Amino acid sequence: MKALDQAIDLAAAFEASPNPYMLLTPDLRYAGMNAAYLTAVGMTRDQLVGRGIFEVFDAGPGDDAAENSRQLRRSFEKVLATGEQDHLALIHYALPVTGADGVVVHEDRYWSATHTPLRDASGTLVLILQHTTDITELENLRRERAAGPESSALDLILGGNVIHRARAVQEDNRRLELERNRLVEMFMQAPGFVAILSGPDHVFEMHNSAYGQLLGHRDLLGKAAREALPEVVGQGFFELLDTVFATGEPFEGRNSRIELQRRPSGPPEVAWLDFIYQPVRDDDGKVVGIFVQGHEVTQTVLAGERQKLMIDELNHRVKNTLATVQSIAMQTARSHPDPRTFADSFQQRLLALSHTHDLLTRSHWEGADLRDVLEHETSAHGPSRIVLNGPPVALDPASALSFGMIFHELATNAAKYGALSSPEGRVLVDWSVANQTRRTLSVTWRETGGQTVVPPDRRGFGSRMIERNVRHDLAGEVKLGYPGDGFIAELSVPLDRDAQHDG
After folding, report:
1. Cα separation of 146 and 138, whole Å?
2. What string of H, E and C letters represents the secondary structure of 121-151?
3. Which of helix, strand or coil describes residue 464?
4. What distance in Å separates the CA atoms of residue 400 and residue 364, rounded to the nearest whole number?
5. How far, in Å, CA of 224 to CA of 9, rounded?
6. Sign of the CA dihedral running 396, 478, 484, 331
7. Which one, of 168, 68, 131, lies nearest residue 160 by Cα?
8. Strand pairing partners for 114?
């Protein structure tokens, strides 16, 4: 009962106050007002309650009135956004007044206003209380004195200085607010990530959109860094923040690896950052916070790693190619003491190596299909004389080069001594892949219809090169046979690269 009596007393005091008061809802609609306010605006409660303040009072004529209306709206929005009281030292507003002839005219009025947030028991802002003071007479007096031929010192004090200072203070506040809004906008739209941390626990005071995106747009404001970013504990970044706060010395990180949870409930992901921790000091020079600014350079770091890998791979391939060329030269020289025959044979083998290089270049050295390698090395002998039969088999670059040299030697020998040396001869190439623990490629090169083949008295360069490529480079096995009706070569090669390296 006592609380009810107090509420009634407060309501009576509100209504009886000689100063104008009114209440607005958060959507800026009238919720209540006292008698003094109704008298000041010349309207009734029924004309105001439930209606929007800017619906009831438009800006009136003139750019100055429109600006004052915007200024009033900004003050209300500031209270709603910050939850803090806001003051307007001087605001000009044109009130609509209906004359005796029924014509509505706008009467210039000048106010000083204070806007105070009112909260419920849970702390939610539910109303805005406006307290206004009508200073129209003082402003009109100032204008009259300023327009007259002479002004006394008293007139200047009463009619000029007070209003002038109020205008100056309000204009300065408005300018400062605009500058602050521009700085905040620039802060939020900065392309790099930016955050402001306060205190020894590095509590998040502000951060921009890029920082939020980097961290999966999680809730950071008001939290200590170790609480907000638990997955970063133990990676050394918090220790760096502690050092910067304690010493006042900035720290710059370059290509720093960090594991961050970049998606809600997702696993930590590796990222690379360029950043700086800059101490923030108060007026006495004491460190009170840290300014964090940086850029994510993950793609740049990964591109650099890929480039290094490609250069290392290129160096490896060049060395292997030179070793292959050297081996071809030495073995060809042993088999061809005549310079003319050596040059022809050596050139043909280099062309075979070049053909396979061209094939790999088309795939950016990602590999080649077995059939493509076979067609590349045997096309010169006519597609109708060499029959290829087998499934698609992807070869890595090293294997493709080795198979290219092997098929070149087989086709060259067949053209010189085997099935392709006579018009009736044919070559059948069959291959298959056995899906065992280690996938194994089996290739059979069979020549038929040619002249009678007998085992050679000694192993030539072609045979030695085939055996070397299969056993050393491909970690496989090879068997060369010489039945009476032709020549046969059987190759068995593991497709697992690790298995090849182990071999």
Report:
1. 12
2. CCCCEEEEEEEEEECHHHHHHHHHHHHCCCC
3. helix
4. 13
5. 46
6. positive
7. 168
8. 87, 131
User: Would the pLDDT of 152 be above 60?
Assistant: no
Note whether 466 and 413 are within 8 A (CB).
no
Rounded to 5°, angle at Cα 263 from 262 and 266: 105
DSSP-derived letter for residue 495 is: -
**278-285 own/partner pairs: CB under 8 Å, 24+ apart:** 278/244, 278/250, 279/244, 279/245, 279/248, 279/249, 279/250, 280/196, 280/198, 281/248
Give 58's DSSP letter.
-
Query: What's the one-letter identity of residue 384?
Result: S
- Answer for the pair 167, 90: CB distance below 8 angstroms, yes or no: yes
Burial 451-479 (b: 16+ CB within 10 A, else e): eebeeeeeeebbbebbbbbbeebbbbbbe
Query: What would the mean pLDDT of 430-445 be, rounded to a whole number?
Result: 87
The predicted model scores a pTM of 0.41
CB count in 10 Å sphere of residue 226:
13
Express each pLDDT in 64-116 by its tens digit. 667 777 888 888 998 998 888 888 877 776 666 666 676 666 677 777 788 99
Distance CA 337, CA 315 (A): 33
Q: How far apart are CA 87 and CA 112, in angstroms?
A: 8
Asked if residue 390 lies in contact with residue 370, where contact means CB atoms within 8 angstroms, the answer is: yes
Query: Which has the higher per-residue pLDDT, 18 or 23?
Result: 23
The secondary structure of the chain in percent helix, strand, coil, rounded to multiples of 5, reads 50, 25, 25
What is the overall mean pLDDT for the chain? 78
255: number of Cβ within 10 Å: 12
